Amino acid sequence: MALERTFVLLKPDAVARRLAGEILGRFEAKSLKIVALKMLQVTAELSKQHYAEHVHKGFYPLLEEFITSGPVVAIVLEGPGAIGVVRTMLGPTNGRDAAPGTIRGDFGLSRQMNLVHGSDSPEAAAREIPIYFKPEELLTYSASLDPWTCAGDEK
Which of 17, 31, 38, 51 sits between 20 and 30 A of 24, alpha carbons compared? Predict the structure, then answer.
């Protein structure tokens, strides 16, 4: 399994509900490494960059209103198969359809207010990470627990 980096955005509802620490803790407990982290307010311009494929769709104004409504936490996580691991941890987009044990299954009831965004492919991660982070903000480091997270041939 290849070592990957993925982008995660804790949306305004996650921050407002004070779930940021709980959600971030789940990623850490899974042994995903935090390589970048910041809290910010998404602007209309930043929203248009992030959701470029949706800007001309009828639902976009509500999406922009939501994502700009409060602070968010932007994160880059790293680990073997990180993109798929995070997507599985999130559960389906609509919290009503998400299984217990997933982030959306445990904390969400909505399609739009679904707490968190996660890159859905390596291409999406490669596009999204630079929207929120400069190259020098992405850290590379070794942690003392790294040898205990998975076997060497799995990295």
Answer: 51
